[in-house]
UniProtKB/TrEMBL annotation:
CDD domains to which the protein is assigned, alphabetical: DEXHc_RecG (cd17992), RecG_wedge_OBF (cd04488)
Domain Helicase ATP-binding: 268-430
Protein name according to UniProt: ATP-dependent DNA helicase RecG
MF term (GO), any: helicase activity
The EC number(s) this enzyme carries: 5.6.2.4
Top-level lineage group: Bacteria
InterPro entries named among the record's database cross-references: ATP-dep_DNA_helicase_RecG (IPR004609), DEAD/DEAH_box_helicase_dom (IPR011545), Helicase_ATP-bd (IPR014001), Helicase_C-like (IPR001650), NA-bd_OB-fold (IPR012340), P-loop_NTPase (IPR027417), RecG/Mfd (IPR047112), RecG_dom3_C (IPR045562)
Lineage, uppermost ranks: Bacteria, Pseudomonadati, Bacteroidota, Chitinophagia, Chitinophagales
Catalytic activity annotation: ATP + H2O = ADP + phosphate + H(+); Couples ATP hydrolysis with the unwinding of duplex DNA by translocating in the 3'-5' direction
Domain Helicase C-terminal: 449-611
Record-linked NCBIfam families: PRK10917.1-3, PRK10917.2-2, recG
Function text: Plays a critical role in recombination and DNA repair. Helps process Holliday junction intermediates to mature products by catalyzing branch migration. Has replication fork regression activity, unwinds stalled or blocked replication forks to make a HJ that can be resolved. Has a DNA unwinding activity characteristic of a DNA helicase with 3'-5' polarity.
Length: 683
């Protein structure tokens, strides 16, 4: 391949080496043994392969509408071929009155069939009947420079002619290959590109999926070994703070799930190893009480504790909640965010440094260099997917031994995703709601029922409750969404007389100060209705709010709707979530809405969400250090995932440092993968 085309491959697809080419897998295979006569093309067919003579190669149109047009004919008819990109390049390449082999997707324009950007090459003995062909992912730019499926197939074929089985390093240990009946790496790669049979393709695909998932489980397993080997502060005793709070100041009796999680935390923090625990619990399940009691455990052992939240309003809420719970015990809690300045800020920094302030709540401000603790023993991180790996890791540097870390999330994580994203963390789950909470009733409504819905909300407000009305905000249509929010706000004012009801509005275009003020009006009960975009998704706690109306609910994802629904049902009163859908709703959107209507189980919703959307779209995966899988799909391949997890555990138990000779290729591969994946110290 010449330097120009080589550079194009590098720039467009990151293919620079033989290994890159071998791992550029076909996504399907097409039968190229059939040649269709032009006069017999079925307009309903998707792809077609033709042979014919090329004539009338001309450029048409001006500026952006410029295109290259050519006619291909045989003895039964003619068809137009079009190129919108790379027209000049193609014009130089194509030869008038020569016979060509053409393959492409047919389309119909003004009653005439044509093919845009076909694969095209001069007809020769070699190209006359290509047979079964691998189809490779490519780009418009490559196609316009005649780097087509055939080019990839030829390149890869030429490479396999040079390769011997020994040239492809086998990275899986022989014992694993035998136990799981996996074909060799060389054979898998060859069959993936050029399978003789469908069975060979399946065997090859299984082997390479297995390898991808196994490597991810090995990385996670080694990270877990590092965590368990990391020395940590030992919390030996359960003292007065913990016991006093448990006996005298607990606002409600702990659920069995909360007690179980506290036992797990006590075990971790008393082991002499650093705790790295992920605490999952649905919205309102009582994670904050568990976090507070863990912090009191730190205080009982002479340490300080902090809780870090992603936004000022969530930090403010934690601060208010913890201060209220600890007030009678005389334990001071202070709030450190970006907006705390001047004398109060200096005072907090001084108190943290000299140890007189033992619990601090804050935002990213806590990880700034100027914040120094005298003896930080526990760091609680709330809604951790909102923090980058580097930000979380900076908490490790706040003491000579890293503090214990408790990571909390209200986004239930399906088991398969937890195994690939958070497998290095111990996982605790709170799967019970505190006593006295009633399940939220979810109702699916249509636009034509709006009057009925608004009257219902007004009745709830007249009982002294509050309501959220949330509008979608999708970046691509931000202007339209903003307009519909403003229009909706106008409609709400029609339903809720301003002389009698107070309405607040919160959205992303507001100044931060105005947004915070409006939010606080609602939190304090000064506003009856909050009209908002999804900025209120995480963390707002208003026990008096009993109705959540989600407008254009068909445009929301499952996990997003579940998070929004969790804003209500936080008090003892019956709460409602109303999903307002438009008149035209796709089958997939209707399926999502029906799932929401049928269950409030966050884990079931998360599993359904993962199955519908796939792992790439799930919340927070961008920062997780999750390896990019080329073939494996953690939903469809959950069986392989379980297999590879057990295999990785087994191997690391037998050879934790991969020192044995048969594990050296694997050790080297993992060191390369680790560099690419940027795995951080905390989750």
């Amino acid at each position: 391949m010449g330097p120009q085309r080589g550079e194009l491959l590098r720039a467009e697809l990151g293919i620079a080496t033989f290994a890159d080419l071998l791992h550029h897998y076909p996504y399907r295979y097409s039968d190229r043994s059939q040649i269709t006569r032009i006069g017999f093309i079925d307009p309903r067919a998707e792809y077609v392969q033709l042979q014919g003579t090329l004539v009338n190669i001309i450029e048409e149109g001006e500026g952006r509408k410029r295109r290259l047009v050519a006619t291909l004919y045989d003895d039964t008819g003619r068809i137009e071929l079009l190129w919108f990109q790379g027209a000049q390049w193609m014009k130089k390449t194509l030869k008038q009155n020569e016979r060509y082999l053409v393959y492409g997707k047919i389309s119909v324009f003004n009653g005439n069939i044509n093919i845009a950007h076909p694969e095209i090459e001069l007809l020769s003995a070699e190209t006359a009947s290509p047979g079964r062909q691998p189809m490779y992912p490519t780009t418009e730019k490559l196609r316009s420079r005649s780097i087509t499926n055939r080019s990839f197939a030829k390149l890869t074929q030429a490479l396999f002619e040079k390769l011997k089985p020994g040239d492809v390093t086998e990275i899986l240990p022989p014992e694993i290959m035998n136990r799981y009946r996996l074909c060799s790496r060389y054979q898998a790669l060859k069959w993936l590109h050029f399978p003789d049979t469908e069975e060979h393709e399946q065997v090859a695909r299984h082997r390479m999926k297995w390898e991808e998932l196994f490597l991810s489980q090995m990385l996670i397993g080694r990270l877990r070994l590092q965590h368990t080997a990391q020395a940590g502060w030992r919390f030996d005793k359960v003292g007065d703070n913990f016991n006093n709070f448990f006996k005298e100041h607990l606002p409600f009796e702990l659920t069995n799930a909360q007690k179980r999680v506290l036992r797990e935390i006590r075990q971790d923090t008393g082991s002499g190893k650093q705790m790295n625990r992920l605490l999952q619990g649905d919205v309102g399940s009582g994670k904050t009480i568990v976090a507070l009691m863990s912090m009191l455990l730190a205080l009982d052992n002479g340490f300080q504790a902090c809780i870090m939240a992603p936004t000022e309003i969530l930090a403010q809420q934690h601060f208010s909640g913890l201060s209220g719970l600890l007030q009678e015990m005389g334990i001071e809690v202070r709030l450190l965010t970006g907006s705390v300045k001047g004398k109060p800020r200096k005072e907090i920094l001084q108190q943290l440094a000299d140890g007189s302030l033992r619990i601090v709540v804050g935002t990213h401000a806590l990880i700034e260099d100027e914040v120094r603790f005298r003896n930080l023993g526990l760091a609680v991180i709330d809604e951790q997917h909102r923090f980058g790996v580097g930000q979380r890791a900076r908490l490790w540097q706040k003491n000579e031994l890293p503090p214990h870390v408790l990571v909390m999330t209200a986004t239930p994580i399906p088991r398969t995703l937890a195994l690939t994203m958070y497998g290095d963390l111990e996982v605790s789950v709170i799967d019970e709601l505190p006593p006295g909470r009633q399940p939220i009733k979810t109702i699916l409504a249509r636009d034509m029922q709006r009057a009925k819905v608004m009257e219902f909300i007004r009745r709830e407000v007249d009982k002294g409750r509050q309501a959220y009305i949330v509008y979608p905000l999708i970046e691509e249509s931000e202007k339209l969404d903003y307009e519909s929010l403003m229009e909706g706000y106008g409609q709400v004012k029609v339903w809720f007389d301003e002389n009698r009801y107070r309405i607040a509005m919160v959205h992303g275009r507001q100044e931060a100060g105005e947004r915070e003020r409006n939010m606080h009006r609602f939190v304090k009960g000064e506003a009856h209705v909050l009209v908002a975009t999804t900025v209120i998704e995480v963390g707002v706690n208003v026990p008096n709010a009993s109705v959540m109306l989600i407008e254009s609910a068909e445009r929301f994802g499952l996990s997003q709707m579940h998070q929004l629904r969790g804003r209500v049902g936080r008090g003892a009163e019956q709460s409602y979530c109303i999903l307002m859908a438009g008149s035209k709703v796709s089958d997939e959107s209707l399926k999502r809405l029906k799932i929401m209507e049928s269950t409030t189980d966050g884990f079931r919703i998360a599993e359904e969400d993962l199955a519908m959307r796939g792992p790439g779209d799930m919340h927070g995966t961008q920062q997780s250090g999750l390896l990019k899988f080329k073939l494996a799909d953690i939903v469809q391949d959950s069986g392989i995932l379980e297999e590879t997890r057990l295999a990785a555990l087994h191997l690391l138990t037998a050879d934790p440092t991969l020192a044995l000779a048969q594990n050296q290729p694997l050790r080297y591969t993992l060191s390369q993968q680790r560099k690419q994946a940027h795995w951080g110290k905390i989750s």
